[in-house]
Amino acid sequence: PILYSYFRSSCSWRVRIALALKGISYDLVPVNLIKDGGQQFSAEFKALNPMQQVPALKIDGIILSQSLAIINYLEETHPNPRLLPQDPKKRAQVRMIADHIASGIQPLQNLSVLKQMGDKKMEWAQNCITSGFQALEQILHNTAGRYCVGDEVSMADLCLVPQVANAERFKVDMGPYPTITRINKALLELEAFKISHPSRQPDTPAELRA
Length: 210
Prior knowledge:
Keywords: Cytoplasm, Isomerase, Phenylalanine catabolism, Transferase, Tyrosine catabolism. Residues 1-82 form the GST N-terminal domain. It is found in: Cytoplasm. It catalyses: RX + glutathione = an S-substituted glutathione + a halide anion + H(+); 4-maleylacetoacetate = 4-fumarylacetoacetate. The protein is built from 9 helices and 4 strands; from the N terminus they run βαβαββααααααα. The protein is an alpha+beta fold. It folds into 2 domains: 2-81, Glutaredoxin (3-Layer(aba) Sandwich); 88-193, Glutathione S-transferase Yfyf (Class Pi), Chain A, domain 2, CATH 1.20.1050.10. A 4-stranded mixed β-sheet has the order 2-1-3-4, with helices on one face. Helix 1 runs parallel beside helix 3, helix 4 (88-104) runs antiparallel to helix 6 (121-143) and helix 4 runs parallel beside helix 7. The two termini are 26 Å apart.
């Protein structure tokens, strides 16, 4: 497999965690979203992913984009360890939380949106994340064990950790979100989350390396 990724992209990080958890080795091709006006806009990359976003994964003779679609494919082709619980109610909760982050928070504060916001980008990002986290904290009160849904790592957790990193980058006060903070801390102790971390990627700038 070949993963087209950017060290700081939260969507790419979700996929890197999934690949690490499932023990799938891959080659990484960095796509710098800022350099050269954004390498994702090159004709070469547009041919791989017409949406001109990372991640993209070349695997088993196909090219997949959209992080949750990629993670679902990995789940179906490499079922262990499970990222979606067998119990239908828990599985629905995992998907709900993953969608809450991947559709309801992250796209509103990604690079292409922030570019449109000019001087207000920090305030905009903080507002988007805060409103999303207020809802998420409430949801997790009903679903969480050690992790987002019960005590097993799931697709929801793969979405949570990169989103908390974004919140920290945009200086969101995490005080009102003790459940999110607790789960994030527990997940960051796991090896798959450590090796996939933005501070440990081949394209991480020297000053941001762990």
